Amino acid sequence: MKTNSYKIDWNVIDKYMPELLKGLSITLEISAVGMALALIFGLMMAVGRLSTNKFVSRISNAAVQLCRSIPLFVLLFWVYYGLSLKFNILLTEFQAGALALGITGGAYMAEVFRGGLLAVSVGQTEAGLAIGLNKGQVFRGVVLPQALRVVIPPTVNVYVGLLKGATIVSVIGVSDMIYVAQYVSLDTFTPFELYTVAGLIFVCLTLSISGFAYLLERRLGRSRAHG
Amino acid sequence: MVSAEPFFDFTSVWSSMGILLKGFGLAMFCATAAIIIAIILGLIVALMRLSSVKAIKTFAFIYTQLFRGIPLYVLVIWVYFGLAIAVGINMPAIMAGVVTLGLLNSGYLAETFRSGITAIDRGQVEAGMALGLSKREVTRTIVLPQAFRIIIPPLGNQYVDAIKDTAILSIVGVPELMRETQQLADLHYRPFEFYTFAGFLYLLAVLTVSRGIAILEKKLSAHSAQTPVNTAS
């Protein structure tokens, strides 16, 4: 087989598109669950880092550093094979994947939340209280809208990162799009076509979400200039 | 015999230290080689994006968007298993890994370089031209040295990301740290210990590089504060 006998055959894509899209929906699902966990972990770590208790803020700081420094790929194996085996926690592939995504994303979200909370000056809260609003009203009507404006665009970017990260979960056996592509190409021997299409689908997906984040950022930025 | 085993047992990790450190060295090599490729390609693409020729500009735009949008895992599989088979080239895994990682990072670095270059005041370029320097001389001696100072922190972050991303190269069989760890974890049936230790090595590398960048950044900003050019205007 010295000559290149590979014949590109795009028909295979037509045939297996439903399977690929089913895999894509699993990628979207796992990244969504991962993001939900990331929001929870992130908020906890951000509040911890801003705590006046030195011990709490140090621990939170270290946790953020740790979660950001360890590659998602390593974390995934550590959670799925290491942690679950050692402590007898039975995690499905999906749960382990979502947890690893949540840990990594949480560290990034902690930074985003911290930035958002710090961006609203104390004077705003004081002014709100001074004109007779109660604490809940100040948070809902004054602090939150301004913090959200700062937080939303980078949050979307973190999600894009998680979505790209979520492609590796097939290594522990989650049947996402790449897993489907690998599985089908074993049968049809058309890896080039399948991976090309899978790659293009991902590029379209991440670029459209990033584009959305960019528009959002511009829009929110503009409304701030007006108000 | 099973019950006599300690809960955490790192002895197999210590005895495999040679292999693990070799894998770690290869991971660092891959990250470094990839970043060097990315710097070269990124600089070219950044300059192309600033070109006045529309076709060149558009090509550079598509290049950055494409490589920033595609996940490394997908691209490395596409290059190693897809492209190689379709075109019939037998690329060694390390080469495929380094090239892929380099291409991906070049997309990000092109954007970093572009923002660094556009951050330089136009007046600087005009002043250089007025002094009789050619366009190329102005770019080389005035714009790039200043842009360099701006791009050091994001460049450092990119290097950190590249180090973390090398773990994914294990998927095509590059015998780097993660690949060796996986094999040793299976062999000794000590996944928790081996993956924990691998995580520790990555952590060490990332923290060392981040600290180095922070020091470099401080030095450069101290230098810029002393430069009278920046305090004028």
Description of the molecule:
The complex is a heterodimer of chains A (227) and B (233). With 227 residues, chain A is mainly alpha-helical. Chain A has a single domain (17-226), classed as Orthogonal Bundle (MetI-like fold). Chain A has helices spanning 11-49, 54-69, 72-86, 93-119, 122-130, 135-165, 177-188, 191-226. In chain A, helix 1 (11-49) runs antiparallel to helix 2 (54-69), helix 1 packs across helix 4 (93-119) and helix 6 (135-165) packs antiparallel against helix 8. The radius of gyration of chain B is 22 Å and the shape is flat. Chain B has helices at 11-15, 17-49, 54-69, 72-87, 93-118, 122-130, 135-165, 177-188, 191-226, 228-231. Chain B is mostly helical. Chain B has ten helices and no strands. Chain B has a single domain, classed as MetI-like fold (Orthogonal Bundle), CATH 1.10.3720.10. In chain B, helix 7 (135-165) packs antiparallel against helix 9 (191-226). Chains A and B meet through helix 2, helix 3, helix 7 and helix 8 of A and helix 3, helix 4, helix 7, helix 8 and helix 9 of B. Chain B: Belongs to the binding-protein-dependent transport system permease family. HisMQ subfamily. Chain B: It is found in: Cell membrane. Chain B: One of its GO terms (cellular component) is ATP-binding cassette (ABC) transporter complex.
| CATH class (first level) name of chain B | Mainly Alpha
Number of helices of chain B: 10
Biggest sheet descriptor of chain A? none
Q: What is the radius of gyration of chain A computed over CA atoms, rounded to a whole number of angstroms?
A: 22 Å
What separation lies between the terminal Cα atoms of chain B? Answer: 78 Å
Level of helix content of chain A? Answer: over 70%
Q: Which pair of chains forms the biggest interface, and how many residues does each contribute?
A: A-B, 42 and 44 residues
Q: H/E series of chain A, N to C?
A: HHHHHHHH
State the end-to-end distance of chain A. Answer: 69 Å
Strand content of chain A: under 5%
What structural category arises from helix and sheet content of chain A? mainly alpha
| Extended strand count of chain A | 0
GO molecular function (chain A): transmembrane transporter activity
Keywords (chain A): Amino-acid transport, Cell membrane, Membrane, Transmembrane, Transmembrane helix, Transport
Transmembrane segments (chain A): 26-47, 59-81, 87-108, 158-182, 194-216
InterPro entries (chain A): AA_ABC_transptr_permease_3TM (IPR010065), ArtM/GltK/GlnP/TcyL/YhdX-like (IPR043429), MetI-like (IPR000515), MetI-like_sf (IPR035906)
